[in-house]
Amino acid sequence: MSIEVKNMKLHAWIAEIKTICQPDAIYICDGSRQEYDSMMQKLIDSGSATPLKKRKNSFLFRSDPSDVARVEDRTYISTTSQDEAGPTNNWVAPAELKGIMKDLYKGCMKGRTMYVIPFSMGPIGSPMAKIGIEISDSPYVVVNMHLMTRVSSKVLELLGTDGDFIPCLHSIGAPLEPGQKDVQWPCAPIEQKYISHFPEENLIWSYGSGYGGNALLGKKCLALRIASAMAKREGWLAEHMLILRLTSPEGKQYHIAAAFPSACGKTNLAMMLPSLKGWKCECIGDDIAWLKIAPDGRLHAINPESGFFGVAPGTSYATNPMAMDTVRENVIFTNCALTDDGDVWWEGMEAELPSHLIDWKGHDWTPESKADAAHANARFTAHASQCPVICKDWENPAGVPIDIFIFGGRRTSVVPLVYEAFSWEHGVFLGATAASETTAANIGAVGNLRRDPFAMKPFCGYNMGDYFQHWFNMGEKLGSKAPKIFYVNWFRKSQDGKFLWPGFSDNSRVLKWICERVDGKIGAENSAIGLLPNEGDLDLSGLTLQSESIKELMSVNVDEWKAELPDIEAHFATFDKRLPAKLKDQLEELRKRLG
User: Fold this and answer.
1) N vs C: which end of the chain shows fewer Cβ within 10 Å?
2) Shared-domain flag, residues 189 and 43
3) Using CA atoms, how far apart are residues 190 and 171, in angstroms rounded to an integer?
């Protein structure tokens, strides 16, 4: 151990895990640049990391084809009572799950180093931050945690001798016998992968996967699944939301928190370059928001992360120039293709296809190849400070005051471009019924419609019926200071299958309308589903949209919405007695308005 551990609970935990997992060595991480560089060198030497000649201090990793995304069917919320986990989570009783995993953990780190990673979610020392300690046998995890969280010896100092932390145990599940050669991406077979959460103990155990949120336990595991349960107990919110600051030409600031399922444009919106003259967008976070009621009675939000773990395919200078500038150097790429001159490439990066690549599996690729060169869920990991539009207040320990909540999803029909909730209660209904067509970010059939309440279905660490009630309770506490709630859909298509809305930088036009509604500058048209923009109120200056397209974008087809009702009813029925009565009331009110 290179650093002295003074915290008694941590000292005992390290000793316990050492005995179970039997690593060859233990290393306490300090978060330094020297540490990052030495870890990366170790990964280069083992053949796991490929240095990129064209990007300074950037590296490409290729994962095992069985280990490429979140594995929702191997992700568990383990509570004493199954009802506490609720119908949206996989449940196994704590004693049973711990028994299975303890057997897997026995000797699982043989031949490897056990890394102890002290990290802060949120600025170190912020009253809104939480401390985690991840134990892992993966140097890939160490370097990614350096970028995604605040890894530092200062965290251990802050813990002192008796401070509390969230224990996060991770192993790739691939022990090495003496003389055994390691593979490029060690992991366990799918049936041995477990991503387990024990919210009653604020405990995370992960085994068998080295990829993304399965292994970087500060991300979805701590920042959402465990934090959401903590937030319910402590009276705050942990949400799958981007945070951005929008500044009007007059200099007025608006802070927006928006929830979309994965691969529905969160990062693009968080780093948007507005097409409207005089408007400015700054990024505070692209994925997770922790929101607490401040002394001023308003909700203030921090981004608990310190980096971006973004989906690469589809990211380009046309769709998200700020993300492209963010990943120019000091980046970890995973499952992208490799160009002949030592750069990365992915589908959608540029119009012209390279004549030859090495694909994400390490095979030759040409334009005639049938498979994609990059995996559909290929990722980049980059520190937030590299983003050209990062907000100067992104690390403000007190957070920023939220004016607006936006929910949305990927819908090719039914849902209009934008509408406003009638009230907080109606806004919770919009969040609770949010639906999206599935993407490659979650394993399963692509294109199916699934209800993804608040974009939190894979991430809520307790019964989601109670989660809905918690949102109603927060609204009551906030009263007149509650943010206004809106719903957007950038993905509506015409009858011939073309997107009706240009999206990306032009989404600023929708945000401008939302800000004007919050300021009470403009009215809105009453509809059965919410408040729609009046004709002429959406700023379309400089756009060449056909009036028919605008009409279709904003249309609310009563019959289509009536057809949604049975699906919403079935969705609500899954929560049984835990479903708040207010949601049933909102559904009945919608039914009446539809006639």
Assistant:
1) C
2) yes
3) 14
pLDDT of residue 505: 95
Which ranges of 239-380 does DSSP label H, i.e. alpha helix?
Answer: 266-270, 321-326
pLDDT attached to residue 61: 98
Asked if residue 247 and residue 215 are part of one domain, the reply reads no
Domain CATH code at residue 321: 2.170.8.10
Q: Is residue 2 part of a domain?
A: no
Distance of CA 410 to the CA centre of its chain: 16
DSSP per residue over 256-270, as a string?
Answer: EEEE--TTSSHHHHH
* Predicted model pTM: 0.96
Residue 378 has what pLDDT? 97
Residue type, 420: E
Report the C-alpha dihedral over residues 434, 438, 439, 443, rounded to 10 degrees.
120
**pLDDT score recorded for residue 263:** 67
Q: What is the pLDDT of residues 22-47, one digit of tens each?
A: 999 999 999 999 999 999 999 999 99
Note the Cα 117 to chain centre separation in Å.
21
Report helix, strand or coil for 97.
helix
Domain extent for 319: 308-386
DSSP per position, 490-518: TT-B-TTS-BSS--GGGHHHHHHHHHHHH
Q: What is the largest CA-CA distance in the chain?
A: 73
Whether residue 162 sits in one domain with residue 30: yes
Backbone angles phi, psi at 51, to 5 degrees: -65, 140
Collect the ranges in the chain with pLDDT lower than 50. 1, 442-443
What's the start-to-end Cα distance of the chain, in Å? 69
Q: Are 475 and 449 contained in the same domain?
A: yes
Provide the pLDDT for residue 171.
98
Q: Which residues, other chains included, contact 585 with Cβ-Cβ below 8 Å and sequence gap of 6+?
A: 425
pLDDT in tens, 489-546: 999 999 899 999 999 999 999 999 999 999 999 999 999 999 999 999 999 999 999 8
pLDDT at 443 (0 to 100): 46
Cβ–Cβ under 8 Å, residues 74 and 193: yes
Candidates 52, 491, 465, 485; CA nearest to 261 is 491
Residue 510 contacts residue 326 (beta carbons within 8 Å) = no
Q: Would you please indicate which residues are annotated as catalytic (active-site) residues?
A: 264
Q: Which pLDDT value is given to residue 3? A: 81
Same domain, 172 and 272: no
Closest of 165, 124, 125, 169 to residue 31, by C-alpha: 124
Q: Which residue has the tokens 């931050």?
A: 129
Residues 565-582 as b or e (16 or more Cβ within 10 Å = b) = eeebeebbeebeebbbeb
173 and 103 part of one domain: yes
Are 323 and 196 found together in one domain?
no
pLDDT of 446 reads 57
CA distance 16 to 14: 5
Say if residue 299 is in the same domain as residue 342: no
